[in-house]
Design a protein that fits this description.
With 389 residues, the chain is an alpha/beta fold. The chain has helices at residues 2-24, 27-40, 50-70, 74-98, 115-134, 145-169, 184-187, 259-263, 280-296, 308-315, 330-336, 360-368; strands at residues 198-207, 210-214, 227-237, 268-273, 300-305, 325-326, 342-347, 350-356. It folds into 3 domains: 2-169, no CATH class; 198-237, no CATH class; 259-387, Glutaredoxin (3-Layer(aba) Sandwich). 46% of the residues lie in helices and 14% in strands. The chain has a 5-stranded mixed beta sheet, with helices on both faces. Helix 9 packs parallel to helix 12 (360-368). The termini are far apart.
Length: 389
């Protein structure tokens, strides 16, 4: 029995620590996933709390996992873990049964798993945690009280501190399609070996007041005695024929699509700002250095914002007042810019680097080391006036 308790503690503890760390690497990712659930449940009033809930939940998973491994306050944490896993099981079960949202985001974007796998995983964890709760009086702390308390204080501080760092400086491990080294142009395409969705065609007919459904091979010989009602395509197998990057269609003031001209430039700099919840004054000076250095190198700079009109108004009195502003799908902006704002350096659409505001000085130094472009950005052949400096 002691061996069973130890195995369950290690499995549950490590899994919770891993799950918490993966999501703590990108707290906004879980925040957006919570908003998807709230949208399904029509609880939009809770959207403003999702980031706080995300940070607390991620920290708790890490803390609870270590507490279980160390046997620290096991009576309290065995109950808390059971309550948490019952809640998780409800969420994953809901996603599995309804298909909404597509997945629960249990391991963030770094390890996407199906809703069925998530649900089965949580069922197994529920059984193991219930077992540990039953045997909680047999679990002894691994460390003396003072040492255990000190270590857990460090773990608590670290679980929140790590998230504070990632929320200011971008995820430490980038698992999103806009990560450094990726070609945005290629990621906008469907993979050559992608599997399309498979559908079964069904025809709906009525006869003598009754409704009948047939596949093309099941149509009756006396079909002319039936009345056609409709046709439907029933999904029988979900494929993966979707590009990694969707909605990256850059449109300026005129509404023309300027995506390809921008991604075709030898070098270009994009600054993503979903909104101005972080005031421009907080990062204006740092970005001004990036902008001036880029202009000295004849490298084009563009802003991509979910609020283009406000962006133009905010920049009107700055040194980058003439910065062209594009907009695109807001979900895409959130994926590209986990920290608001985020600067990208591109080489013909390939991401050479990305930095949040604390890293703008580093970005400026890298841009300063690039060769001067022989053709100024103003000469780029485009179809929209929003690309002109």
């Amino acid at each position: 029995m002691k061996t069973s308790i130890t195995i369950a503690r290690v499995l549950v503890g490590l899994l919770f620590i891993f799950s918490g760390l993966v999501k703590a690497n990108d707290p906004l990712g879980l925040s957006y996933k919570m908003q998807e659930f709230f949208e399904v449940w029509k609880l939009h009033g809770l959207d403003d709390w999702t980031l706080t809930l995300s940070v607390v939940m991620n920290a708790f998973e890490i803390i609870a996992g270590f507490a279980l491994l160390l046997g620290w306050r096991i009576r309290l944490f065995s109950w808390l873990l059971l309550l948490l896993i019952v809640f998780f099981t409800f969420l994953t079960g809901y996603t599995y049964v309804t298909g909404m949202p597509k997945n629960c985001g249990c391991f963030g974007d770094c390890l996407p798993i199906s809703s069925q796998t998530s649900f089965l995983k949580d069922l197994a964890l529920t059984i193991m945690i219930a077992f540990l709760l039953w045997k909680r009086y047999e679990i002894r702390p691994l460390l003396p009280a003072r040492a255990g308390n000190f270590l857990m204080l460090l773990i608590i501080a670290g679980s929140f501190g790590f998230q504070w760092y990632t929320l200011r400086n971008l995820p430490v491990v980038d698992c999103l399609p806009f990560k450094t080294g990726n070609n945005i142009m290629e990621k906008r395409k469907v993979a050559a070996d992608a599997i399309p969705d498979s559908f079964a065609i069904r025809f709906i007919y009525t006869k003598a007041g009754k409704e009948y459904e047939f596949s093309p091979l099941e149509l009756p010989a006396d079909l002319n005695t039936y009345t056609f009602v409709s046709r439907k395509d029933k999904l029988i197998r979900k494929g993966n024929a979707e590009p990694a990057i969707k909605g990256f269609d850059l449109k300026g003031f005129s509404g023309a699509d300027s995506t390809l001209p921008v991604l075709s430039l030898p070098y270009s700099i994009l600054i993503f700002t979903e909104n101005f919840s972080v005031p421009l004054s907080n990062w204006e000076r740092a970005f001004a250095g990036v902008y001036k250095t880029a202009r000295a190198k004849n490298i084009a700079v563009y802003m991509i914002s979910g609020q283009p009109d406000q962006a133009r108004a905010e920049m009107a009195s700055t040194v980058f007042a003439d910065l062209p502003v594009f907009t695109c799908d807001n979900t895409t902006i959130r994926s590209a810019s986990r920290v608001n704002p985020t600067v990208y350096l591109l080489n013909e659409g390939v991401v050479l680097g990305k930095w949040a505001a604390p890293g703008f000085t580093k970005a400026q130094k890298i841009i300063a080391g690039l060769p001067v472009q022989t053709v100024p950005p103003v000469s780029v052949p485009v179809t929209t006036d929003s690309l002109q400096h």
